[in-house]
Write a structure and sequence with these properties.
- 2 copies of one chain form a homodimer.
- Chain A is an alpha+beta fold.
- Chain A contains 15 helices and 12 strands.
- In chain A, strands 1, 2, 3, 8, 9, 10, 11 and 12 form an 8-stranded antiparallel sheet that branches. In chain A, strands 4-7 form a two-stranded antiparallel sheet.
- In chain A, strand 1 and strand 2 form a beta hairpin.
- The first copy, chain A, is globular and about 65 Å long.
- Chains A and B meet through strand 2, helix 6 and strand 5 of A and strand 2, helix 6 and strand 5 of B.
Chain lengths: ~350, ~350
């Protein structure tokens, strides 16, 4: 039974609460902080996109196609589907000799409500470029391009979302190498964007992110790829999420000091390179915006050296005020005492 | 510590889970089924709109203004903000000599995404009529009209959302009478639409809904008002929620056999008149669509006499399949064994 990590206050009353678990490890596998069950395998969903992008760089595909910081950053993204995102993804696909028809992630209206309304106002419908995972999928297609050559890529890549496709086998192998967890024996589900997701313990996910932040424990090709991806995201943090989003706001402020990425169903992972630590969070009930993010904010407050301005910036993320439709403050989110103690 | 009531399955794995409590009482106060803590006060939010509408009918305001079934139904609603809803609310306000400027609920884009995109396509912005609570607020303003007369209503009603306004005092008194819970001593918060919300135990909420379904235990004016509101909602279930929504779908099928209404933060209440029972649910983490609704569906399956077609209909609500962006079935929601046992 995991403890309460986040409380939702209305007036002076706890109206709702979110339980979950958090692991903080260094790259040697030492557990620096933990709360809740960090051994139970959980689906990391989109939180591990940076691990799934390692083969794109290690294979040389990113160099061959001359991928920019923005393009590498969007391969690690669950983006808002804003025009800036869809344009970058379309550009990547063009470099691989492909277009949006090659994407197998499906289409959905942009995450960002103003972007959705702009599309609607223009009388348009969303396509696969607007899918929050389109950058990751474009990265898979660029990897396919390196594996098969530009001439053959369209045929070769078809069905790339399947677990046994050569592209996805590369991606899964990188995930296994970084986490050190045997994925052949892991529970498997199908993700929102149709690729497999494997259940992995928070302990292994935190370890993987400590490795991503330091390079320690990764093979040389992965270590170099992780560094390049982190630098790309620090250069183009808007690409990873977008307007108003937690990951974008945090990485716009902290640059390479924090790499963080959420996943559906209340998952959040981070690499804190200057501390040599990795963080992995799962909220039991699957809540992202008001639970996993508040826990990650509390972890950053506790684990990263912050000045007063940084603390003020973080407080908006770790203890956001809840406002009603007239803008009246009606409550707030807060990290539980148990979580604060675990991070102290 | 409340038990798990709903599990979120991805493939064969429990990916996330929702804890909570449920109370089923008859109008004499006998507890027929319960799971979790039903004594802890919780904010019922919009689930008690039918109780808050009792003074509108009992006062004679509904008769004086000639309110229709659709208009009475929308006073009990958390509606989608579709054109059918906003038109009915605008009509009610006109009967009271008012317009949308008198509403103090604030504005937001319609709950229904297609309605939002239609507004955007038309180059329009939402107003207070689109607020999911606009019908309840129109009901408060119609009550104010009966209390102050049409000539004075605009001035009299100003500030009606405040706890000490004469209109809100009537509304709160009805809530207290129906639940039998002392609201003067209760924790109070401000709701999304700016009116007060009072923390009330699930036991008292279930009792209130058993009373609403049977009239037993209510004073005569409230009993008659409850019957009229239930009939109105059964005649116009679209008004209570709208396209695709749980409450609308259930009440379109079952008519007066089931009255059900959700509230923000994972609350759901129901009256089951033919069984003489009231149901009240709170999900700890505040999840509505995939937790409170699944629990309510399981309660209806267990407590209402259903034929095979009804069972098939309910299965879509009690065990919905989760599909990804390409429409592939990736999992399902399910009521926990503990919940099924409690309802058996």
């Amino acid at each position: 039974m995991n403890p309460i990590l986040v409380e939702v206050m209305r007036g002076g009353t706890v109206e709702s609460a979110h339980r979950g678990a958090l692991a903080v490890l260094d790259a040697d596998g030492a557990c620096v902080a933990a709360i809740g069950d960090i051994e139970r395998p959980i689906f990391p969903r989109s939180a591990v996109k940076v691990l799934q992008a390692l083969p794109l760089v290690e294979s040389g595909a990113a160099d061959q196609l001359g991928l920019s910081h923005a393009e590498l950053a969007v391969t690690c993204a669950s983006h808002n589907g804003e025009p800036a995102h869809t344009q970058v993804v379309a550009g990547m696909l063009a470099k691989a000799g492909l277009d949006r028809d090659a994407l197998e992630c499906g289409a959905h209206w942009p995450y960002l409500d103003t972007a959705t309304r702009e599309l609607a106002r223009a009388g348009r419908e969303p396509d696969a470029l607007n899918n929050n995972c389109s950058g990751k999928h474009a990265g898979f297609l660029c990897l396919a391009c390196a594996m098969a050559g530009t001439a053959r890529v369209r045929d070769y890549a078809r069905g790339y979302v399947a677990a046994d496709h050569p592209v996805m086998r590369e991606v899964t192998a990188a995930l296994q190498a970084a986490t050190g967890f045997d994925l052949a024996g892991a529970a498997r589900g199908t993700d929102g964007c149709s690729i497999p997701t494997y259940a992995i313990p928070l302990r292994c996910l935190a370890l993987a992110f400590a490795r991503v932040g330091t390079g320690n424990g990764l093979r040389e090709g992965h270590a170099r790829a992780a560094k390049r991806l982190r630098e790309a995201v620090a250069e183009a943090p808007f690409m990873v999420a977008g307007t108003g989003r937690f990951a974008t706001r945090v990485m716009q402020r902290f640059g390479e000091r924090v790499f963080c990425k959420g996943g559906a169903e209340g998952v959040y992972c981070a690499a804190l390179p200057e501390r040599g630590l990795g963080v992995a969070i799962k909220i039991d009930d699957g809540n992202n915006a008001r639970a996993a993010e508040v826990v990650m904010a509390a972890a950053i407050e506790a684990l990263v050296r912050l000045d007063d301005h940084d603390m003020e910036f973080m407080r908006e993320l770790s203890a956001p005020v809840l406002r009603n439709w007239r803008g009246i403050g009606v409550g707030a989110l807060r990290a539980s005492d148990a979580l604060r103690r675990a991070l102290a």
